[in-house]
Amino acid sequence: MTKPHIVCHMVSSLDGRLSPSNWTASPDGNRNDWSAAYAAIHEKLKGEAWIVGRVTMAEMAKGVPHAPAVNGEIERPLYLAPHGHAPYAIALDASGKLHFDRADIDGDHIVVLLGRDVSDSHLAELKADGISYIVSQSTQVELPAMLDVLRGELGIRRLLLEGGGGINGSFFAAGLVDELSVIVAPALDGRSGGKSIVDSGEVGLAGKVELSLTSCDKLEHGAIHLLYAVKPNQPKC
Q1: Is the Cβ–Cβ distance between 193 and 22 less than 8 Å?
Q2: How far apart are CA 124 and CA 117, in angstroms?
Q3: CATH for the stretch 1-48+157-237
Q4: Tens of pLDDT along 38-63?
């Protein structure tokens, strides 16, 4: 498999949580300051695309189901919309639940990764909206195969993983992450069961990856930026 170089880029509280509305206050800064730092480092990481899960993308897509204005041929497994170009905004949506009112997110062309059982009508909606898509050969999105397509068909060499804990955990568990970039804000969440930056379920990641610190930078507003090299552990024969 030839995949993009993948950097998981996140901003979290000191206890690794993802919901700033539940964080403690700090005299050094607030959620807007830390979000601005996150966006600035996102640009410095120079990704040709970024990828999130369905829930995260739904907050940006804000579309509703709608029939395509013109019915045409439905391409499977791949449709690349005209004028699609980097940077790309990529969404994992195995069941085809996302709907869009435009073909880009802040100028980044949308690409949706879907499961095998997605309906032709949903694909027709995406195509009519000018959105590119890739359909997996299985009911769930096969990450290694999809990454191979993203590199081969779209030329994506550097991908920023910016999802919730579940999608991040899936990438880490599959040994697909090359670097971890975390902005740590001077705040605490403290809730039991709060969303964390990486969540791979009951199995966890012990023994699956090794992290090595490559840089630690103090930012404005009391935050720090940590960058780690991520090495997947090879299974022992």
Answers
A1: no
A2: 14
A3: 3.40.430.10
A4: 999 999 999 999 999 999 999 999 88
What are the residues whose beta carbons fall under 8 Å from the beta carbon of 55, sequence distance 6 or more? 164
Please calculate the CA angle 170-74-161 and round it to the nearest 5 degrees. Answer: 20
| Mean predicted confidence (pLDDT) in 185-208 | 92
CA distances from 146 to 24, 123, 127 (A): 39, 17, 19
Distance CA 19, CA 11 (A): 10
Contacts of residue 76, Cβ cutoff 8 Å, sequence gap at least 6: 123, 135
What does the pLDDT look like over 95-154, one tens digit per residue?
999 999 999 999 999 999 999 999 999 999 999 999 999 999 999 999 999 999 999 999
pTM: 0.94
Q: Is 98 exposed, middle or buried (0-12, 13-18, 19+ CB in 10 A)?
A: buried
Q: Which residue ranges does the chain devote to CATH 3.40.430.10?
A: 1-48+157-237
